[in-house]
From TrEMBL, chain A:
Subunit structure comment from the entry: Part of the FGAM synthase complex composed of 1 PurL, 1 PurQ and 2 PurS subunits.
Pfam families: PurS
GO BP: 'de novo' IMP biosynthetic process
Organism of origin: Streptomyces swartbergensis
Main location: cytoplasm
UniProt protein name: Phosphoribosylformylglycinamidine synthase subunit PurS
Record has Ligase as a keyword: yes
UniProtKB/TrEMBL annotation, chain B:
Name of protein: Phosphoribosylformylglycinamidine synthase subunit PurQ
Gene3D superfamilies assigned: 3.40.50.880
Subunit structure: Part of the FGAM synthase complex composed of 1 PurL, 1 PurQ and 2 PurS subunits.
SMART domains reported in the protein's UniProt record: GATase_5
Gene for this chain: purQ
Catalytic activity: N(2)-formyl-N(1)-(5-phospho-beta-D-ribosyl)glycinamide + L-glutamine + ATP + H2O = 2-formamido-N(1)-(5-O-phospho-beta-D-ribosyl)acetamidine + L-glutamate + ADP + phosphate + H(+); L-glutamine + H2O = L-glutamate + NH4(+)
Pathways involved: Purine metabolism; IMP biosynthesis via de novo pathway; 5-amino-1-(5-phospho-D-ribosyl)imidazole from N(2)-formyl-N(1)-(5-phospho-D-ribosyl)glycinamide: step 1/2
Record keywords: ATP-binding, Cytoplasm, Glutamine amidotransferase, Hydrolase, Ligase, Nucleotide-binding, Purine biosynthesis
Enzyme Commission number(s) of this protein: 6.3.5.3, 3.5.1.2
Keyword hit for Ligase: yes
Alphabetical list of InterPro entries matching this protein: Class_I_gatase-like (IPR029062), PRibForGlyAmidine_synth_PurQ (IPR010075)
Function: Part of the phosphoribosylformylglycinamidine synthase complex involved in the purines biosynthetic pathway. Catalyzes the ATP-dependent conversion of formylglycinamide ribonucleotide (FGAR) and glutamine to yield formylglycinamidine ribonucleotide (FGAM) and glutamate. The FGAM synthase complex is composed of three subunits. PurQ produces an ammonia molecule by converting glutamine to glutamate. PurL transfers the ammonia molecule to FGAR to form FGAM in an ATP-dependent manner.
Length: 87, 226
């Protein structure tokens, strides 16, 4: 079994009010020197069968049409190695 | 003969009954549609109402947009079927790319619920002919994700084509670009806005005015005279 990770982030030019709220809370918590925070979404897709080019292309389509709204968001698709489950 | 106007209920829709009531008050016949319906029961127009379909999971409207009922709706809206999206319904229409742009979290991060002043910028859409261009109206606004955004090119195009249908007046309640409260497609049959006209159709409730009723009388006149 393989895992494919899709990361979705707001485009750089899109205001991220949630990220700003997190950033503004940092000094209060004693964390200094962080000038910007952007909040995104990470999807972990457990794929049955081989993750070949065709499977990745389908996941790319899925990300583009559903997981991300490309009006405001960018996304990346990558395969993550999963350690075999210990029996 | 009167017009039959469908109101779609998704899991998490809230304002379907209010919308049906507004349609009835305007003199048309409301028809309940279910998100799993595969046809639109031959209605003459459809309203996608407010609420939190699928709990706003993923993005507001993103999951509802792939409901079975959306297939015939998309096809018929492109062929001219009048469709009005209110609040979550507007979000669903942008997710379905029937309307441009999309909605982000309110810039101040708070849920907002207030009587909102708007200017009707386009009184020629299927849903706004009973207004006059430039008319100022008060209708309720209530949402989390109401900040309208689109790229500058799209915004310029909307302005140039008169497709900004409604604009917030006096106060921008959510950071929407260019104070945009609602937009229309190029043909004028698909309209979406964040504020809730269906909550302003009787003097007793809402803003105490009936400023939202012309949405429903506009479409009725259009359909009956068609």
């Amino acid at each position: 079994m393989a895992r494919v990770v899709v990361d979705v982030m707001l485009k750089p030019e899109i205001l991220d009010p949630q990220g700003q709220a997190v950033q503004r809370a940092l000094p209060r918590l004693g964390f200094d020197g962080i000038s910007d925070v952007r909040q995104g979404k990470r999807f972990e897709l457990e794929v049955d069968g081989p993750v070949d080019e065709a499977a990745l292309a389908r996941i790319h389509d899925l990300a583009e049409s559903f997981l991300a709204n490309t009006v405001i968001e960018d996304f990346t698709v990558r395969v993550e190695e999963v350690a075999e489950a210990v029996k | 003969m009167t017009a039959r106007i469908g109101v779609v209920t998704f899991p998490g829709s809230l304002d379907d009954r209010d919308t049906q009531r507004a349609i009835r008050l305007a003199g048309a016949e409301p028809v309940a549609l279910w998100h799993k319906d595969k046809d639109l029961k031959q209605v003459d127009a459809v309203v996608l109402c407010g609420g939190f379909s699928y709990g706003d999971y993923l993005r507001a409207g993103a999951i509802a947009r792939f409901s079975p009922v959306m297939e015939p709706l998309l096809e018929q809206a492109k062929a001219g079927l009048p469709v009005l999206g209110i609040c979550n319904g507007f979000q669903i229409l942008t997710e379905a790319h029937l309307l441009p742009g999309t909605m982000l979290r309110n810039d101040h991060l708070h849920f907002i619920c207030r009587d909102q002043k708007l200017r009707v910028e386009n009184a020629e859409t299927a849903w706004t002919t009973d207004y006059t261009a430039g008319q100022e109206i008060h209708i309720p606004l209530k949402n989390n994700d109401g900040q309208y955004v689109a790229d500058a090119y799209t915004l310029d195009q909307l302005e140039a084509e008169g497709r900004v249908a409604f604009r917030y007046l006096d106060f921008n309640p959510n950071g929407s670009q260019r104070d945009i409260a609602g937009v229309t497609n190029a043909a004028g049959n698909v309209v979406g806005l964040m504020p809730h006209p269906e909550h302003a159709v009787e003097p007793l409730i809402g803003t105490g005015r009936t400023d939202g009723l012309p949405f429903f009388t506009s479409i009725l006149k259009k359909l009956v005279n068609a």
